[in-house]
């Protein structure tokens, strides 16, 4: 079974939308510590392409992996899961 055609998706919160057609998404994941067996929050920021500038700060979005769009952009917004309050 191959992974061809299956692109990674990540859920995160928009923390910046100041750039044109680009948002910054903060994604958190829980990782178990190898020695102490406690769960640690790991955070990562991703720059994602937002073609219509629909996302605003605080929105929960689903981003999908894509071919490089610029030096740092390798993700696209698939859908907005939840709007900011």
Structural features, described:
With 85 residues, the protein is mostly beta strands. It has no helices and five strands. 0% of the residues lie in helices and 52% in strands. The protein has a five-stranded mixed barrel. The model has no long low-confidence stretch (mean pLDDT 94).
Total DSSP E strands:
5
CATH homologous superfamily annotation: Nucleic acid-binding proteins
The biggest beta sheet reads: 5 strands, mixed, barrel
Q: What number is the mean pLDDT? A: 94
Strand content: over 45%
Structural class: mainly beta
Quick one: overall form?
Answer: globular
CATH architecture assignment name: Beta Barrel
Please state the CA-atom Rg, rounded to the nearest Å. Answer: 14 Å
Q: So how many helices?
A: 0
List the helices and strands in order: EEEEE
CATH C-level category: Mainly Beta
What do we call the CATH topology? OB fold (Dihydrolipoamide Acetyltransferase, E2P)
Number of domains: 1
Distance between the termini: 42 Å
Estimated helix fraction: under 10%
Going across the biggest sheet, name each strand in turn. Answer: 1-2-3-5-4
Low-confidence stretches: none
């Amino acid at each position: 079974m191959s992974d061809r055609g299956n692109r990674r998706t990540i859920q995160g919160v928009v923390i910046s939308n100041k750039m044109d057609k680009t948002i910054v998404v903060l994604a958190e994941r829980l990782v178990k510590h190898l020695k102490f067996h406690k769960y640690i929050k790991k955070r990562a920021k991703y720059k994602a392409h937002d073609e219509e500038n629909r996302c605003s700060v605080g929105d929960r979005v689903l981003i999908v992996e894509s071919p490089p769009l610029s030096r740092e952009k390798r993700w696209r917004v698939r859908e907005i899961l939840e709007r900011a309050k």
